[in-house]
Design goal:
This protein is of the alpha+beta class. It has helices at 21-32, 49-64, 108-123, 150-155, 161-166, 175-182, 208-212, 250-268, 304-325, 344-356, 371-375, 402-421, and strands at residues 8-10, 36-37, 41-42, 68-71, 77-81, 90-94, 126-127, 132-136, 197-203, 216-222, 224-233, 237-238, 273-275, 279-282, 288-289, 292-301, 328-337, 340-341, 361-366, 381-386, 425-427. The structure holds (2S)-amino(hydroxy)ethanoic acid (HGY) and manganese (II) ion (MN) (2 copies).
């Protein structure tokens, strides 16, 4: 595509431009076939063969769209479209890894919506002032390798590549070995790619937009997150002969802690949420008092001080349970992120853009962690939410209506045009094929 001799420069963003929803839906459907599981969901855990296949497909689309591809040491992939000026790109993107019982929109929408924006600009021969980039970051979910948002955290300088590469997953492999195995151990140093601004489109994964009947969420920030693994150790013994007063039952201890976690969130109220997502007992036999319980605790709050209070209160309750039951409990942090506030000017831009397109919009915090929460450390950042039917996510029944997918992607298109065009865009006449 070459610039024409006298390009028709437009002085305002192309407010009437719209994406091609069928093309977006087709890509979402194709990507969802990779790692497809019963019920319409997706299992594409980070750095598995399914992740590789998904990466390969998205990279092939990036190449078709003429993007220049870079892969950094953590396997973060960035596809860049040149602007009329050089310099840091305006970036969008998300992740294509999923949890084991994931849906087809979590993360995938943000990446494919970014490609849809590029395809729309290409077919209308539009070039922006600043370069545009679409990224997918490694291991956003943190389901196989902790912490979550690993790739974007390293990309934004919050975690060293060495530490991330050395991380051992739940199946005993390392990030480094798996990146090499799937062919995505890149050479670009992490943290070496500046970003002018970052906007991520994502399904809300909660009930707020649907219950309020609002079409677009202008995300004000991401709540703080504290993941810990607890190892509860007791004494295995015979289920029939051991008097209740003599038991040191790790299974009971874990259950009492799980109840305390729930009661903590209910007593604190507000935005406090708390989840015990995994409990494994050993030896896990019907007639043996459990010697050991491995369990996870996920605490989140939009307020940093309240999150610390929740952590402290839970630690006290765990200590009391351990004392009473004669158990030993150790805790290991799996992830810890402070609440993040997005750029207020960009949040307002999302609201204004949505309303200018005729969509209703509301400001709201994100309950889920996102790559945008990491990139906010290095660039002005905002997120766009679209409604999740029944507020479901991390569930095979995750669903967002095509109209909402289209609305969100159109808002993304316009916000990116504004951010990357500064004052004007240039319509590029296609080069004459045969002079
Ligand atoms: O856990 C989260 O909020 C994100 O899906 N990793
Ligand atoms: Mn996500
Ligand atoms: Mn997720």
């Amino acid at each position: 595509m070459t610039r024409s001799a006298s390009p028709a420069s437009l002085t305002t963003p192309l407010v009437d431009l719209r994406i091609n929803c069928d093309r977006l839906l087709h890509r979402l459907d194709q990507l969802a076939q990779i790692g497809a599981i019963a019920g319409g969901g997706v299992c594409r855990l980070a750095l598995t063969d399914e992740d590789k296949a998904g990466r390969d497909l998205v990279v092939s689309w990036m190449r078709e769209l003429g993007l220049t591809i870079t892969i950094d040491q953590l396997g973060n992939v960035v596809g860049t479209r040149p602007g009329l000026m050089a310099g840091a790109p305006v970036m969008t993107g998300s992740h294509i890894d999923t949890v084991a019982t994931g849906g087809r929109y979590d993360g995938n929408l943000g990446v494919l919506a970014g490609l849809e924006v590029i395809a729309t600009l290409n077919e209308h021969h539009i070039q922006t002032q600043n370069p545009l980039a679409v990224a997918f970051f490694t291991n956003e979910e943190g389901a196989r390798f902790h912490p979550d948002m690993m790739g974007s955290w390293v990309f934004s300088g919050g975690l060293s590549s060495d530490a991330a590469l050395a991380e051992v997953g739940t199946d005993g492999t390392t990030v480094a070995a798996e990146l090499t195995r799937i062919g995505y151990a890149g050479t670009v140093p992490c943290g070496s790619q500046p970003v002018k601004a970052f906007v991520e489109l994502h399904v809300e994964q909660g009930p707020v937009l649907e219950q309020s009947g609002v079409q677009i969420g202008a995300v004000t920030g991401v709540q703080g997150m504290s993941w810990q693994e607890l190892m509860v150790t007791g004494v295995s013994n015979h289920a029939g002969t051991t008097p209740m007063s003599l038991r040191h039952d790790a299974g009971y201890g874990a259950s009492a802690i799980a109840v305390a976690v729930r009661e903590l969130a209910l007593s604190m109220g507000g935005n406090q949420v708390a989840t015990v997502g995994a409990i494994q007992l050993k030896p896990g036999l019907v007639n043996v008092i459990a010697k050991e319980a491995r369990m996870t605790v996920d605490l989140r709050n939009t307020d940093a001080a309240l999150l610390r209070q929740a952590e402290a209160q839970l630690a006290e309750q765990i200590e009391a349970i351990a004392q009473k039951e004669g158990l030993n409990v150790t805790s290991r942090s799996l992830a810890r992120f402070e609440p993040v506030t997005f750029d207020p000017v960009m949040v307002e831009q999302v609201v204004q853009t949505a309303q200018a397109l005729g969509y209703s919009a509301k400001r709201m915090p994100s309950g889920a962690g996102h790559d945008a929460g990491m990139i906010a450390a290095i660039a002005p950042t905002a997120m766009i939410f679209v409604p999740s039917v029944n507020g479901l996510s991390h569930n095979v029944k995750e669903y967002t209506a095509p109209t909402d997918l289209e609305n969100g992607t159109n808002v993304l298109l316009q916000v990116l045009l504004q951010l990357a065009s500064s004052s004007k865009v240039e319509v590029i006449q296609p080069s004459l094929k045969h002079k």
